[in-house]
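[Meeting: bench + compute handoff]

Bench side (C.D.) handed over the final construct sequence. Compute side (W.E.) agreed to return the predicted structure before the next meeting so the bench team could plan truncations. Sequence as handed over:
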Amino acid sequence: MPLRESGQMYLEAIYVLSQKNENIRAIDVGAYLGYSKPSVSRAVGILKRHDYIVVDDDGFIVMTQKGKDSAEKVYERHTVLTKMLMALGIDEKTATEDACRMEHVISDQSFDAIKKHYNDYKNN
């Protein structure tokens, strides 16, 4: 089952947090995103049910390979789109916010073309 935007946001948050700390709990995700405990609990349940994450006996969240692959895809979109917008002269705050919205709706074909163009641009 493909993730909706909110699920992608949670996975991306778990991915970003896991780059800084090996042990991630739901409370960390909620603090990072600024979401309430019930919202995070519901999202964690959905991500578990669809095999994107597992939660161990100590409450630590671990991404499955499926979850990691999805999170890395969203994170790559976010970072490439942010950098591309900033290269066009958009301020970092606006570029980051716009990239966050764009990353969830852009097709693979369009993203791959943008990524290729951006990489060609930065290498010249």
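W.E. noted at the follow-up: The two ends are 40 Å apart (CA to CA). C.D. will use this when planning the next construct.
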